[in-house]
Write a structure and sequence with these properties.
The chain has about 130 residues and is α/β, with parallel strands linked by helices. It has one domain: Rossmann fold, CATH 3.40.50.2300. It is built from 4 helices and 5 strands, in the order βαβαβαββα. The two termini are about 20 Å apart.
Length: about 130
Amino acid sequence: MKHKVLIVSNDNLVTGLAKSTLQQEGFEVLGIEDDKVIETIVDFKPAVLIIDHTSNQDGGILCRKIKQSDDNDKVPVLLMSPMRELAQAFDQFLADEFIYRPYIMRSLIDKVNKLVTPAEKLPSEN
């Protein structure tokens, strides 16, 4: 079974690059804009959620909203941003991991794999 990754970004280039990279590693990937993210999490059931945080899109607030919801708080979130200052403060948004972009493809793959492993264990803990 392929692990599902949901990418939330308003930048098609960012989504396309991450999607292509992760699909080559065997992930099932869906890219969306942030207006329907809660419904998509429920329907798609991702193992990992990647949220792009830019000056135009406040992924940090979206991340916090998701992590504070009772239904989606267990979904691991990788916050991605071109803003270096977030590397020191990503945990304030309750994100599980952070990656600065532009990024090295292997770094993205490694971070997603790191987040997938705990997600695999969730059903057996219930």
